[in-house]
Structure formats: C-alpha cells, structure tokens
Amino acid sequence: MREPSGDVRLHYCALAETLARLPQEELQRRKQSAELSFLTQGITFTVYGRDEGTEKIFPYDLLPRLVTSQEWDRIERGLTQRITALNLFLRDVYSEAKILNDHVIPRELVYSCKHYRRQMRGLQVPRNVYISVVGSDLLRLNTGEFVVLEDNLRVPSGVSYMLTNRRVMKRTFPELFHSYGVRPIEHYPQLLLATLRSLAPEGRPEPNIVLLTPGVFNSAYFEHTYLARQMGIDLVEGRDLVAHDNIVYMRTTDGLKRVDVIYRRVDDDFSDPLIFRGDSILGCTGLFNAYRAGNVTVTNAFGTGLADDKALYAYVPDIIHYYLGEDPIINNVKTFLMTEEKERKHVLANLDKLVVKAVGESGGYGMLIGPHSTAHQREEFAARIEANPRNYIAQPTLDFSRAPCLIGDRLEPRHVDLRPYILCGDKINIVPGGLTRVALEKGSLVVNSSQGGGSKDTWVLE
C-alpha cells in the first residue's frame, strides 16, 4: 500500500481516504456483513489435521489488494510465456526428449521425479496441451518486482474463492469498487468451460464435460461443487464413472451417458487403480486406457506434476530460453538444488536464513522457514536433506509485500502473495486478478489456506 518512503502509493490513495473516513463501527459492520455472506453461502475449506472440525469458513479480509494495469500487463505476458514454455517442455519430455539430450536439464532430475509418468511416453494429447489450468504463485518484492515462487500444475485450487471474494466485495464497498474501474473476473467459469470444450476429442462437437472430485472430504470440495454449478456441468465421483471398450461413461438415471472431457481434481495416483495406485477408490478403472485411445480428454494431462516439481522449477528460465529463445519476463526466486554438493553445503550451513521445501509437496506442507525455526527443527531438516537430497530445495527468505488487513478492530499489515489462474486450450486466457492469499498470523510468511491463511479480493485497475 505504501512506497518504501512511507507515502501511500498513488493508486491506493482512494482506498486510504475511504478507510480514514469510515468510522470503526462501520468497518466492523461491513466485516460482519461479509462474514455472514460467506457463512450463508457455505464457502468453506478444510484444514487437515485440525481438531476443531472438518470444515471452516474460509478466512476473508475485508480490504482489497490493488494491482495497476502496468503491473498486470507484465504479469499477463510473463505467465503466458511461462505456460507456453512448460507445455512445450512436457510435450518434448514425453516424446523426443531433446532438452534432455541437449543436456539443458539433467536427465536424472526428470526421471527421478515422482510425478513423471512413463505411461505418457509417446502419447499425443489434444492440441499438445498438457497443462490447461494453472495457478502460479507470485510474490511482489520490496523493489516492486513480481517474481514466480512456484507453479501449481496438478490440481490448482482457490479460484472459487477469487470469484466469491469479488461478489462479496462488490456488496461491501460498492461505491469504492465502481469508482476505481476494476477489471472483471466473473467470466472465468465460462472461459474454463470454453477451454475444456476446445480440448474435446475429435468428432465430438457437443462434448459431455464433467468435473471429477475426490468427494466431500476433500479440502476443496466447495470449489468443485461451485465450479461445476457455474459451468452447468455434472459433478461426478469415481464411482459415478465406468469404462467399457475404452470409452468412459457416466451412470445416470437414464442409463449410461458417454463422457468426452474430464476436468479432474484428483491426483494422478488416484485416477485409475488399473494403472496407478491399485488401492484407490477415487478414480475410474480403465480411465487411462480410454485416455490413451483418445476417446476421452483428461485435464490437466497425466504427468504434468513433473513440471511443478520444485527442483525442476529452478530450470524454468532455461526451459523458456530453450523453447522460445526469450528471456523470462517474470523471474524465478533463487533456488538451491540439494543434489548439487556445493549448493547443499551452503544450505546446510545457513538453514537459519533459508526456506527449505520438499519438492513434491504443496499447500505449505514439508517446509522449514529458517528464521522462524528451532534448532531441533533445523537438525531434523538437515538429516532429511542428507538422507534424500533430491527431495529438497532451498530458497532465500524473501521480504515480500504486505497489505493492510482488518485484524480485530485495527488495520495491520500482513504478508500476501498472488495466485493468478491461467487457462490454456485453443488459446491462452488469464482473467485479470487472482487469489490474493494472506498470512493472517502476525509476522508469518506462510499464506497457504491449508495452513490457516486467508484471502482478499484482487482489483486489477483499468
């Protein structure tokens, strides 16, 4: 909200003036009204491992985060570049593997990734699009530069909260919203539907599209139901699907109905017990064979988790150079690979200053935040790194942006990131905005909703 000098940034002035003008009682009234709206809409999220219950209301901060059109233009171009390169990378790795033969990326790094799927070798996917739905996490540094912290390519979540935050915000600050000239995001479900439709198998002009959910106990079940409803498609679980002769059908009261496109919110491992985990009951037996036969599109494609392995993330700038011949528009965060002896020694000697992450984890799990860790925790992570260097990376502890939040009856700064959502089908679409996640605990750097973080609306200005 403020420049390093302490002055309010120009595009935040109207918000600052509104906050200065509103009595504290009125702010609290609007906050309670917003929370009641979330409650009545059943906007919930599951935080695994908490004792207070399976579901909780998704924490929401009343004040919007503002992004200028100039900032957004760079973000949009940078993410378009990134998703284009990552799709080319996946296509190459699962076919000719030129990038490995040219020694741009260590071969062993790819083949040792637990999300690499040998079953995808030589398999053609519609339009060569492996990743059609992406949520990339960005940080804004104190220099004003946005950087990519990580890409979420498997089953990125949170877009429903982006949409519901906007709906609530429009009711909470209607005058401010309209005076700012905020770019719309409400058409995201229609863009997602058009993206899925564009990836349908050939010869299916009116494809039947479904959203596959693990079920009611999944942390993002609200989002699954919300998106399916907004797109007007069926929400199904694995038990609702059956595969015969390499064609997938949905069980309905009128009999079996062919399925052409599956937007899955189920990880690879649980999608088809015949190919992946045999003990899973969340997927559909025979799904992969139908997929391999080209009779059903599953998106994101199997094996895309390879490209969001946190060790391979370090090579994304090289991937962009290799396939596009361009410099990255949005930079990566400096990343230390534990498979490199020199870098590993540096990290082990500086654990108290760095953030260590497990390469295949998401949601803030498997992390050590050095400056906030105990000596015992650092010893524990050092042992883990020594035992399995491939499984960890480290990054500097960044001084990233904070935004004003209404905490209790006071305005206090909290760290925030930004997760825009990129859609890739016959073309690339990015709705102007994203989910701004908030580290609600004072001083915390962890914004993940699965770790108790919250969110706020993101306004991209005209």
Question: What's the SSE blueprint?
Answer:
Layout: H1 13-21, H2 24-41, E1 44-46, E2 55-57, E3 65-67, H3 69-93, H4 98-101, H5 107-111, E4 133-140, E5 146-152, H6 159-172, H7 174-180, H8 188-198, E6 209-212, H9 221-231, E7 234-236, E8 241-244, E9 247-252, E10 255-258, E11 261-264, H10 287-292, E12 297-299, H11 310-313, H12 316-324, E13 331-332, E14 336-337, H13 341-349, E15 354-358, E16 367-369, H14 375-387, E17 392-396, E18 402-407, E19 410-419, E20 421-424, E21 428-430, E22 435-438, E23 454-456, E24 458-460
Explain what you see.
By secondary structure, the chain is of the alpha+beta class. The protein has 14 helices and 24 strands. The protein has helices at residues 13-21, 24-41, 69-93, 98-101, 107-111, 159-172, 174-180, 188-198, 221-231, 287-292, 310-313, 316-324, 341-349, 375-387, and strands at 44-46, 55-57, 65-67, 133-140, 146-152, 209-212, 234-236, 241-244, 247-252, 255-258, 261-264, 297-299, 331-332, 336-337, 354-358, 367-369, 392-396, 402-407, 410-419, 421-424, 428-430, 435-438, 454-456, 458-460. A five-stranded mixed sheet has the order 13-5-4-20-21. The chain has a four-stranded parallel sheet with strand order 7-6-11-12, with helices on one face. A four-stranded antiparallel sheet has the order 14-17-15-16, covered by helices on one side. A hairpin with a 5-residue loop joins strand 4 (133-140) and strand 5. Helix 2 packs across helix 6 and helix 3 packs across helix 12 (316-324). The protein is globular, with a radius of gyration of 22 Å. The two termini are 18 Å apart. The model has no long low-confidence stretch (mean pLDDT 92).
